[in-house]
Design a protein that fits this description.
30% strand; NE0471 N-terminal domain-like; Double-stranded beta-helix; alpha+beta; homodimer; 4-stranded antiparallel sheet; 2 domains
Chain lengths: 381, 381
């Protein structure tokens, strides 16, 4: 960030700044005032101290200049003064290229990731922040990560969940056992194979992150399948743009009922963010209820749904590995779709424990640890 | 539901049914097959037993008829048989009118609701399911509800939260105290007035439901303000359609930082569902960070933001009441925006405890209790 500010000028209701390397940037006046960093406008903790309705209705920039390397503004009618550092301006530029490059990009993967699984040893991760940050970097990029040598004690999945973030309690409790049971209320608790899916799309909010901890794994079969749902969605977008669009637009109803719960939510199979990037996948054939859509869109939607399901089943998409006792996988539930091959419970035991954590807790921990290591790219408090 | 099915016919890839009252309905074949209710297709718990890729690619309806009052279909090429009851078909019709009337409609409110606050006694609610369902009906319609005579013991807010749903633990803990503290990490923990807002839009997911329990309330001031954010959004939609649209489209960054947390999320101020109905409001001047939008949309967005803030401040929109000791308010955080007037901590004490619960838990409880009372309109397991 050695580039320096050269000049500033007022052009209508925007401020234009020029840099020594010849670049220019434009910032709307109202945006600058609302983002004023001065102690009267922002509490030391970063919270804004005024409301939008507190600002003068006839607000305007009276004077714009470069002082001590900062952009300094004097406002009419209240003579308020705002200053912005060069690095803050660069970090918050509103040009479309800058905005695009600021977005974290997922790294797509497929079956070949088997040779470089994002993995860390649980004890090493706890002992060394650099190990944890490295693992979290991979988790953020791939949407999942593996931990090895997590003690095979019941309840450890909750300990790991509360280390990384905050465990979410639901009608399943704070953790759930994935094991064959006599009268299952959910197919997950049987021995049948399960195609890849996201968990509990019938919840609002959908669980953001799932942890599965393997306590026992002697039964033949029961391999874990993982598919990068974001990658699959991008393939669909390329191969069938109209179908992709339908899956992002029409909501599907999801539902789960038992004696104690009646959970319903609607979500599109593919949810985009404001820039059109894939943000969430909701895919679960077991709990999908009815598509509640205009009649003429139903058959085209189903054609796209089948195409997307076909892509998810392509052998090159499927990352297959067997969780051994002590392995724990942490998955972004709306990206890293998971399933399992069938197993024979008469020939051995298979016992996993799972829990959910919210997305914000683990993301916050990742940022705080990066800050501690001086790795944060964030320039602005 | 005394109307009876008259006839069924296959028209291309849809099934058309006629009712004795002259109405007709159309259902796409693939949709009907995917929703087949037979025991081979659905587990007793309602979960689907097949994947979309398991269905024949050349699927077609071979035969459609009314039998014993049901729609019965025979499929090619696999001779599978599906049956649908009349009530199920009515409940899931895909015509736009039917789809619209199935949606739960919020009941908008304003200052005048003071005369008929949605309120229940905590002991009465626990003792009588009908009281609880009546209160939950009002909570669902208005987006908030009051409970009276909740024992003024610290931690009771968590007890109530776990009665209604499941408490969400965050970096604030499972509950938080709203009380003047010496070195606050958040302006909520001071004595200043707070304009109406939604809590923690910097989280992903945003807290769905907030509970605030008043333990002490002797300080002058500190009245509670509630504004129906959905109502305000509809007013904006009517008065400034273009501005409304901008607020639904552009995401705003929200952020909270302290020594232990760094929370960031983006959300539009007004979020719509797939049918264009207002679904969520994210409004918090303190934690709003930068608007990350194309330059030319920034000034128009700010104009709309100010208009929306103006509407939220209209006196007729503000429901104002003072929480007394033992009162507890349960609010849909993304609808019933809350604030408070300033108070003077030197003249008395004001102590609230709050917690968050997820939306799905309380909604599920509402459905299950309605089912228990035989009030459920849901016809289809």
């Amino acid at each position: 960030m050695s580039i320096e500010l050269l000049s500033a000028s007022i052009v209508g209701d925007v401020v234009q700044i020029a840099w020594q390397d010849g670049r220019t940037m434009v910032f709307p006046a109202i945006w600058l005032r609302d983002n004023c960093r001065c102690p009267a406008c922002r509490h030391a903790n970063g919270q804004r101290l005024f409301e939008i309705t507190d600002l003068p209705r006839d607000l305007a920039v009276k004077q714009a200049a470069i002082q001590d390397g900062h952009l300094q503004l004097v406002w009419a009618p209240d003579d308020h003064i705002s200053a912005f550092t060069a690095s803050w301006l660069v970090a918050h530029e509103l040009g479309s290229d800058s905005r695009a490059t600021r977005r974290e990009q997922p790294v797509f993967w497929d079956r070949s990731l088997i040779d470089r699984l994002p993995v860390a040893d649980w004890s090493a991760l706890r002992a060394d922040t650099a190990v944890e940050v490295g693992w979290l970097d991979q988790y953020a990029a791939y949407g999942f990560g593996l931990l090895r040598n997590v003690p095979t004690e019941p309840g450890m999945v909750e300990v790991v969940g509360n280390h990384l973030g905050f465990v979410r309690v639901t009608n399943y409790g704070s953790l759930f056992d994935v094991i064959s049971v006599p009268k299952p209320n959910n197919l997950a608790f049987t021995a049948v194979g399960l195609g890849v899916h996201s968990d509990n799309p019938y919840r609002e909010p959908t669980p953001g992150v799932q942890l599965l901890h393997c306590l026992e794994s002697d039964a033949p079969g029961g391999d874990t399948l993982l598919v990068d749902g974001f990658h699959a969605a991008e393939i669909l977008r390329r191969e069938d743009p109209a179908g992709f669009k339908l899956l992002t637009q029409l909501p599907l109803n999801f539902r789960f009922r038992d004696a104690k719960a009646d959970l319903q939510a609607e979500a599109p199979l593919i949810k985009l963010d404001f820039d059109g990037a894939v943000k969430e996948i909701h895919f679960n054939n077991r709990s999908a209820d009815t598509l509640n859509a205009p009649v003429d869109l139903v058959a085209p939607w189903y054609a796209a749904y089948r195409k997307f399901a076909d892509i998810l089943k392509r052998p090159e998409m499927e990352l297959i590995f067997k969780l051994g006792a002590g392995d724990l996988v942490v998955m972004m539930n709306e990206r890293a779709l998971h399933g399992r091959t069938a197993f024979d419970p008469s020939l051995g035991r298979r016992h996993l424990q799972g829990c959910y954590i919210d997305k914000d807790g683990i993301e916050s921990r990742h940022r705080v640890l990066r800050r501690q290591l001086g790795l944060s790219k964030d320039l602005a408090a």
